[in-house]
Amino acid sequence: QLHLVESGGGLVQPGGSLRLSCVTSGITNDRHAKAWFRQAPGKEREGVSCISGRGGKIEYSDSVKGRFTISRDNAKNTVELQMNSLEAEDTAVYFCASFDDYLCPTTWVDVKSTRAPVLWGQGIQVTVSS
Questions:
Q1: Which of 34, 36, 120, 126 falls 20 to 30 Å from 104 in CA-CA distance?
Q2: Other beta carbons within 10 Å of 62
C-alpha cells in the first residue's frame, strides 16, 4: 500500500525559508507526477507546484513563482519543496500529492478535476509569523 509522508514544516519568520520533504513508501523508483498543495483556514485547497515523473516539466502557481522550488529524487522516492521569502499569506497546511500519470495534468491545480491527485499525504503545518 502506498503512502505519502510529509516532513519539514514549522514556524518561520516573514522572509525566512523552509524546506518540505515528501517520501513515498510502498513503491520503488516512483515515476508518478507529484505536486504540493496547501490549504489555509477557511480557504479551499490550492495547487502550489507540480513536477513530472522525471522532473523535466515543472509548474508553479503565480503566488509562489520565483520564491518556491520543487525537486525530486526518484532513487529516494522523495519530492521536496524549497520555500524562500516566505510571507504570512503562505501560512497553511501543505499536502504532498501523487497523480496517476507521469505528467502533470493541465488541470493539476484543480482538486475537483477528474484528473485530480489519487493519493494524498496527511499534511504538515507551515506558519509564517513574527
A1: 126
A2: 6
**109 is written with which cell numbers?**
491545480
**pLDDT for 89-98, tens place per residue?**
999 999 999 9
Q: For the residues 120-127, what does the mean pLDDT come to?
A: 97
**Pairing, β 92-98 against β 34-39:** antiparallel
Per-residue pLDDT reduced to its tens digit, 37-49: 999 999 999 999 9
Query: CA-to-CA distance for 96 and 122, rounded, in angstroms?
Result: 8
How far apart CA 29 and CA 14 sit, in angstroms, is: 36
